[in-house]
Hints:
By secondary structure, chain A is mainly alpha-helical. Chain A contains 9 helices and no strands. The termini of chain B are far apart. At the A-B interface, helix 2, helix 3, helix 7, helix 8 and helix 9 of A face helix 3, helix 8 and helix 9 of B.
Amino acid sequence: MKMSGTDADVIDALVGITPGSSLDGIRERRPEARAHAQATYRALFAPKEPGNVTAQERFAVGGFVAGLHGATAIAVAYAARLADSGASAALPDAIDAAIKEAKTRGPYGTYPAGPLSHEDTAGPVYRVGAATRRALGPRLSAAFEHVHMLVFHPRDAAPASLQALLDAGWSTTDIVTLSQIVAFLSFQIRVVAGLRTLAGRP
Amino acid sequence: MAETVLVPPEHTVPTAFTRAQLDWLPWLEPLAVEAMTERHMASLVDAARVKSPYFRLLARDPDALEARTRTDKDIFYNPDAGLPRAERELAAAATSRFNGCLYCASVHARHAATYSRREADVQRLLDAGVTVDLGERWNAIVAAAVALTATPIAFGPEHVDRLRRSGLDDLAISDVIHAAAFFNWANRLMLSLGEPAATAGP
Lengths: 202, 202
């Protein structure tokens, strides 16, 4: 599937929704949600003011998040935009390596000690491997470690994970953007999966 | 020089899911009200949100915040048919319960209880978790939200069939999908940029 521009509706494209179809009619009943899911995509992946977060960083994180979800078609779409952004050939390989290192099942994590402690579920804390870290560089490596937590065990979030990003050169505002990218993709990937399943069950 | 995270003031950490009002304390510096531009203010959509450190933090990326908020409002507030508001809130609460977001679960469990008038059932979801028996229609909605929230996503045709057997049409099923998907967005921001605190008053 093609996701090169920012005007065509990305969720429609990823689900395969055609004008006049049943799902087209359903999405049109929630027109603001449809328009602003697309507006969020534009804000995060074709921002009017990119600030300090580069296009390559945005698409690299996009591909990593989709890959961690096993959402292959979406990961390929972000990889294509990463290639268009002029990334080196080594970067997609490093992202693929990171996905292989990091992929697991979620959500898991720990609660504050108390009555919920019996629901604590252990799982891995991702640390980027040495070879992958050399290819990603320190800034993206720090981001990927944080992204893995957000995707698989967000209830383990703590100030230390944000401090690690600050120490790696992400500003407070950059972290807000990075967090929005991961959180928004967690939405986009689920809407696409859900609507595809619905479309496959006429 | 790198910025540093905020150290929240001394507070009582909630250790159980609750329908009580909670506070939220940021780990990163929100924008100061006096430093906010017209664009920052407009991104809040509701002017009253200027009081919220959460929204003033997200306003650091105003285009993403505004699009996020308009997506949220249409998914939950659009009154045109589909899933009743109470059950959109149920899907949000179940997603938050499964991901472990005490703050999000508190808000949306309150809404689910208010709109459904099934306070005891909503409280059982909070106390016992997402496998509790709430009657077949609510069980189907909770199971669908949970399956869509798992990574990798476990939502399949059997969830669509079960929702249909419970009387949901395709617009209502799309609403379940969007409500659960949206809380995979919201939970990750709430969990990772700050923490909940019990309020001092009754």
